[in-house]
Amino acid sequence: MKIRKNDTILVLTGKDKGKKGKVRFAYPEEDRLLVEGVNFIKKHARAVKGARQAGIIELEAPIHISNVLLFCSKCNHPTRVSFSFLEDGRKVRFCRSCGEVID
Ligand SMILES: [Zn+2]
User: pTM for the complete prediction?
Assistant: First the structure.
């Protein structure tokens, strides 16, 4: 998975296009990410006694990884990610804009 938990991403499509957010959760099997403050959906909720009232609640829904770009903290640009191997054999991600290693 090219994008992981705690990465900052930029949304490319949909109603949240142009928004930046932090990845709160990654779902590698589905290639989806739950991003803070992005892709809110409205849900009708039943009342839970003592916890909440019935009504409409807003929840973040996961978005597909192809709809986002990683935001590089080194060069401050949204970028595609490539993988590379270090001399010690570790696989790391690097930024295609500035060439810096991300992890
Ligand atoms: Zn960069």
Answer: 0.83
DSSP-derived secondary structure letter, 65? G
pLDDT for 20 beyond 90: yes
CA angle 34, 38, 98 (to 5 degrees): 80
2 CA → ligand 1 middle, Å: 14
Contact 33, 60 (CB under 8 A): no
Ligand 1 centroid to 30 CA: how many Å?
26
CA 72 to mean position of chain CA atoms? 13
- Residue 3 CA to ligand 1 centre (angstroms): 14
